[in-house]
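Repro case for the chain-ordering regression, as requested:
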Amino acid sequence: MEYNIAVVKGDGIGPEIVTEAMQVLDKVGERFGHTFHYQEVLAGGCSIDANGIPLTEETIEICKNADSVLLGAVGGPKWDEVPSEKRPEKALLGLRSALGLFVNLRPAQMHKALSDACPIKPEIIGDGFDILVCRELTGDVYFGRHYRRESDKGWGETGADDMNYSVYEVERIGRRAFEMAMKRNKKVCSVDKANVLETSRVWRETMHRIKDEYPEVAYSDMYVDNCAMQLVRNPSQFDVIVTGNLFGDILSDEASMITGSIGMLPSASMNESGKGMYEPIHGSAPDIAGKGIANPIATILSCAMMLRYSFGLMAEADAVENAVEAVLDAGHRTADIAAPGEKALSTSEMGALIRAQL
Amino acid sequence: MEYNIAVVKGDGIGPEIVTEAMQVLDKVGERFGHTFHYQEVLAGGCSIDANGIPLTEETIEICKNADSVLLGAVGGPKWDEVPSEKRPEKALLGLRSALGLFVNLRPAQMHKALSDACPIKPEIIGDGFDILVCRELTGDVYFGRHYRRESDKGWGETGADDMNYSVYEVERIGRRAFEMAMKRNKKVCSVDKANVLETSRVWRETMHRIKDEYPEVAYSDMYVDNCAMQLVRNPSQFDVIVTGNLFGDILSDEASMITGSIGMLPSASMNESGKGMYEPIHGSAPDIAGKGIANPIATILSCAMMLRYSFGLMAEADAVENAVEAVLDAGHRTADIAAPGEKALSTSEMGALIRAQL
Ligand SMILES: CC(C)[C@H](C(=O)O)[C@@H](O)C(=O)O
Ligand SMILES: CC(C)[C@H](C(=O)O)[C@@H](O)C(=O)O
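-- result from build under test --
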């Protein structure tokens, strides 16, 4: 089969890690008989430099026409002074919205080989944990109206944002979460703040309605403040966490940090037709950009998610994940995950070792 | 001096722990020559049972007229089926709003004697940490309009909430945070989501304006998702964290859990004239209510905050905190903080030991 992939290398370490990941995809293609065609486009800081804006119509069109999008990372201090409407991160929000990527899957798994890097005590972690955060990505206060008004109490200029969820949006993300849980440990924890927010009350009512469609799945509700605590207290209690855009932003980052393997974690953002954007959860790490020492594993694992979720290539996805696992088990490390005194591989050495396993 | 305290024992373990705390206040009064007058009022579940609503005008009036309010905990499964407008937690929101308690101070300190209970690895914690979360408590999406509307995209019923902050509200909480920092380690980290929210952009602009009034304080901004990570990665980096109501709800709970001493943590909520409501951050723990085994320390430490912040009784506040410290250092524990096999004191035994130190 042939697949067209739009490639947004982006800023900072983006180009280095994406280059390794593309070579991994090529190796998968060789072994399994697929061809991946890449079309590189600009987004983020490099697009601001070239075009004056972080996301052009051309980039959007190419991403829409591709079978999926591979993204490195966007942003960096160079664009800190750019006015907020034109900041690099607007490229991310713009792509999510233009492609309708309403579901964001963020696995937070502790890699056993890296358990030393986990910040939580081993008594709490036990045999490890494997959480899938299923974050809604095109709604909530992120995409409501953002505006200023005068305070009606005479309290001066007021920043305001419209937080909201419709029944349809909740059903759509909710069903995805249940479907994911059916392929995993059959547990869904829905996180909201229904004791305060109307948005959350519609969220919770809708979740309660659809949960009956999945009688095999154990369902629970949790308040967001409690979830922020439970992730630290006992992360193993979770399987799939489903939540809105804002709470998902916070909780998925917290869950990632708890794994201690933040340079290793991939993400997938998908729309209704299965098209997706795949990217590491870490940032553009401008401090180490261009040095060839960045860890490409999160991007490579993002390609595995692309193979699985957008192309339905299960064996191929497993092969990539197993290759990464094997390389880690053999003790190979990039600088970010090397123990003090341990040898650190370059970005391309790590990529090559993973390809050698394929 | 004489002080009038409105006492909301509340539900679950509330009555037991507040009773101990009142006796500690009485002991402080004896030793330092003050008289504390208590007026007990109902709020939360017990008020629903007695009056059909969680918070009556009478309770509000008595709390307003008192010099400060001591609260145990409200809520429990008994009132889970009560319609959302009448839930026990509405008593908390109602009191915060009626008394104008715009600043919520939540210290997150690791008690050295309890470092075994900390979920984070000792390499990360080092010499411990001492964070003060300064949460805005009467604004944000908590107190904006909550309503339902039809989706304008044909996506069905939509829950909506108005998130907002005015310049005045941010200045008010911001100055409090800087003043607290001046008495501590002179660092303020302001947490927002200014890359997405207009509310946060007004927040950040205002903070940047007032920070120049406190040139001795080291100021930084942090996005809320990053803060949720940094609290796990390196809590010692923080001194005062100042943030809005919603982010403060999530981050203060996360910070509490990271201390590992959640049964020990007090809180203060104050208004412009210094009146405050003081309460433990833990809940009503209905599972152990009435057994006389709850840990009264968080409530007792809340009284210390009352002495310090509402009554300006610094020596008295220090005396209470030192008494708690001494009892913990001597190895005394209630069930929630006892190591396996260690002797667990009852609520009143713990209270008596603390009073004996005064
Ligand atoms: C850069 C920012 C707008 C973005 C978000 O909040 O969604 C990021 O934090 C993420 O989680 O992808
Ligand atoms: C009970 C609830 C409304 C409340 C809040 O969200 O403020 C609680 O979580 C708290 O932090 O005091």
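Ordering looks correct now. Chain A touches chain B through 64 residues (CB under 8 Å).
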